[in-house]
Design brief:
This protein is mainly alpha-helical. It is 83% helix and 0% strand.
């Protein structure tokens, strides 16, 4: 047995284990175990090298703090043999050491498998969370697109309604004004005088047509200012994308100067002029009715 031991020790000296698996500190710990138990350091290093191979391929085994590294395995072996010696045993057989190392290998293998399974489940849960976030993001994007489409359709409808309103206020005031002029001309041709109500009615219809024209012009200026405002916002956004600099403002918070304020003012003016045109038409109808009763 001692001859075999010498052969094994010589083979260890001629072919030492890889420094990547067993460090200098590990060899010193193995030497201490050899002195305490009398077991060949080559047998201990062989079992240690066989088991640390399970852990050396993954760096997180040594750095994550959850798996046993080389030094931890050495400490475990030292503690086991120290407890064995404290029980009154002064020697141990090679078969017992091999059996112990086999048990240690199974423990480490089970630990690695459990941690691998846990890591796989954690990664799977993380991927599932990412997919759920992607789906949720796609749903939100779809909702934003839907709202933008609805807003576009509503804006188009509002523009069409506004154009029709301007047409109607111009038609009714213009038609009423032409009719009132024809009626006034008929009265004058007969040598009769025109009362003040008919004059006020004709004036109201004429101003109503003018209000419709002003409303149309104000709408044009409003759209021009809005277009300039959006152009400035787009240019600022393009500059941010090209330069990569952002002052922390959202796209909707960009200051486009006074263009947007001017656009709002002209829009309100257009709405007011259109409403004034309908009011003037109503006033002209009432005054014309009072003039016909006289």
């Amino acid at each position: 047995m001692s001859g075999n031991k010498g052969v094994v020790e010589r083979s260890c000296k001629t072919k030492p284990p890889s420094p990547r698996l067993v460090t200098k500190e590990d060899w010193l710990s193995i030497h201490q175990i050899e002195r305490a138990t009398g077991i060949s350091r080559c047998l201990i290093a062989k079992g240690l090298r066989k088991r640390t191979t399970l852990l050396s391929s993954e760096s997180y085994f040594l750095t994550g703090g959850v798996f046993m590294g080389n030094q931890e395995i050495i400490e475990r072996i030292k503690n086991e043999f120290a407890n064995f010696k404290a029980s009154g045993n002064m020697s141990v057989s090679v078969d017992s050491v091999l059996t112990y190392l086999d048990v240690l290998e199974k423990d480490i293998s089970h630990n690695v498998q459990d941690k691998e399974t846990q890591r796989f489940l954690t990664q799977l849960a993380h991927e599932r969370k990412i997919e759920l976030c992607k789906v949720d993001n796609q749903v939100r994007i779809a909702n934003v697109d839907r709202l933008e489409e609805c807003q576009r359709l509503m804006l188009k409808s509002a523009i069409e309604i506004g154009q029709n309103a301007l047409k109607y206020v111009m038609l009714i005031n213009g038609g009423a004004g032409v009719a009132m002029l024809a009626f006034a001309g008929n009265i004058l041709s007969k040598g009769s005088a025109i009362n003040c109500f008919l004059i006020w009615s004709l004036t109201s219809f004429a101003v109503g047509v003018l209000a419709a024209a002003v409303s149309s012009g104000a709408g044009y200026f409003s759209q021009c200012y809005y277009s300039c405002s959006y152009e400035k916002q787009k240019n600022k956004l393009v500059d941010i994308i090209n330069t990569g600099k952002n002052d922390g403002k959202a796209t909707s918070d960009f200051d486009s100067g006074s263009d947007e304020k001017n656009g709002n003012w002209w829009r309100n003016a257009a709405i007011g002029a259109a409403v004034l045109g309908y009011v003037l038409f109503l006033f002209g109808v009432i005054t014309a009715y009072n003039g016909l009763k006289i």
